[in-house]
Description:
This protein is mainly beta. It contains no helices and eleven strands.
Amino acid sequence: QVQLVESGGGLVQAGGSLRLSCTASGGTFSRYTMGWFRQAPGKDREFAASINEGGRSTNYADSVKGRFTISRDNAKNTVYLQMNSLKPEDTAVYFCAARHYLRAVYDYWGQGTQVTISS
């Protein structure tokens, strides 16, 4: 069983930056693809970014490409999401998720961290 704990959310002005962190425990971190998802009020949860087990392959939603960077430190069991040039439409609860490299779905989710961007 993998436990995920996010941190780093907050309130920033448009154009600002935030870095989210997600620390995992209870599993072999390097066997998991890690993802960041977000859910805005009244909307479905959507994919933001992912990074493979070794950290060499990343994917981004078009809405965040060029502004967000996902990275990981397997020695610290932590995945990061650096968010730059933030927009009000980035306001959402951001969730960290883990997908075992042998599976097709994200099985483990964090509790989420609120990101609010003021205009």
